[in-house]
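[Help] Beginner question about ligand-bound structures

Sorry if this is basic. My supervisor gave me a protein sequence and a SMILES string for asparagine and asked me to "get the holo structure". I don't really know what that means in practice or what format the answer should be in. Inputs are pasted below exactly as I got them.
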Amino acid sequence: MEPAEMNTIPNGKGHEAGEETTATAIKSQSGDAAQTPGNAEANLAESSEFLSNADDKKTPRFTDFEGKTSFGMSIFNLGNAIMGSGILGLAYAMANTGIVLFIILLTAVAGLSSYSIHLLLKSSGVVGIRAYEQLGYRAFGTPGKMAAGIAITLQNIGAMSSYLYIVKYEFPLVIQAFLKVDNPSGEWYLNGNYLVVIVSCSVILPLALMKQLGYLGYTSGFSLSCMVFFLIAVIYKTFQVKCPFDDYAHNRTVLGFNTSVAADPGGVAMTPEGDPACTPRLFNLNSQTAYTVPILAFAFVCHPEVLPIYTELRNPTKTKMQHISNISIGVMYIMYLLAALFGYLTFIDKVEAELLHTYSRIDPYDTLILCVRLAVLTAVTLTVPIVLFPVRRAIQQLFFPNKTFWWPRHIAIAVTLLTIINLLVIFAPNILGIFGVIGATSAPCLIFIFPAVFYIRIVPKEEEPMRSAPKILAACFAFLGVLFMVMSLGFIIIDWTSGTSKGSSGH
Ligand SMILES: NC(=O)C[C@H](N)C(=O)O
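Answer (accepted):
No worries, everyone starts somewhere. Holo just means with the ligand present. The predicted complex, written as structure tokens, is below.
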């Protein structure tokens, strides 16, 4: 072991100077043990110590970091990590599956998501370090660590870009409507690119510079309340909007108004009352049904954030963290179900891939809908710092594995990441298609494949033989992930070649 390793903070978070404990040395040894068969015994002793402690619910013995975040704040943070732009695509997914099939799939993805967190937590109990990349390292050495780090980076950069796209395209419309600017003539405050930079510098960057994720609990709570407001508005609108709805652009054209709202090229056919297009379906299968699982999987991705949140949890145990995950997933499940159901019941077959757009087609200047847009904008903006944390941690794990916390590096990584995402959103809006592919590859890796294969490799054979039920189940889970990845990629390729791209998971 190199002397430098004795000071390693493997989770990428540092202690204050002088806070270094012998625990750090224990971790460094365990990192080494992964590579040296001779140390396997010591390693196993350490793992069983973690496991027995977790199971006994005695004083926890995780020594990689002393967390201070409460149970409630951790629920807010994880809930905020789960809830993002994914919610806007769910009504569309329901339109393409029907209500019953959607509920079955939503329940399945939520359940699988929670099982996958169980695998991650159990593996991290064995390794003793709560970092996704370290699980990869323990399971497969450097390639495993690289694979985890790269998947987290790609997935989360994709998610953050999708949030900033919302800021770029929604924020100018909201400002325009609130200021009642009918004919915009190049005002800077209606330019989405400037707004993205302003929001990034004034809101996201200061939050992303926080030393610990736990501090973001309050903003996460606020972000979730914004989404609750969105949900209440979606439910309320179901009883307000008559099906078939009158397209605003169509009305304005018919009445001869000069409107700045572009008419949808497809238009909305004015269907008579009693049209089947206004009857909700219980089951539905069409060419877009294939996108449902990628949309749902994207909506439930929070796995890169689980271990950082666990690291900062006060008195951490596996059971406690699993409760936090189950509560967050459970609450999001209910919110997702309600948003999808009422969004679908409002527009039935006319619902678009992005729910907010559909409301704008009724009346883009409706005050409630403008407030809802503002709420969604705020919610996704406040999610960016949470999603940025695991990327910074992955970069630290990959490039500066043996370094203690250092403010200049912490700040430089955040600034660089935000700059890259801003440049992508401003100059390469067409890259969303690429993120569809990334979403289709990194999401199944992070949710299904990595937790399962890491678990199989990390949990010692003495404790769970290869043919034991938990490991066979984990193997099936990994297989499901591969199947899902191949399917999603196949659909995207078919979509591209037939030229009807809808962009699956990358909203
Ligand atoms: N955190 C993520 O990667 C995506 C998040 N689950 C969303 O719905 O936007």
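A couple of things worth pointing out: The chain has 18 helices and no strands. Residues 81-82, 84-86, 155-156, 159, 298-299, 301-302, 387 surround asparagine (CB under 6 Å). Feel free to follow up in the thread.
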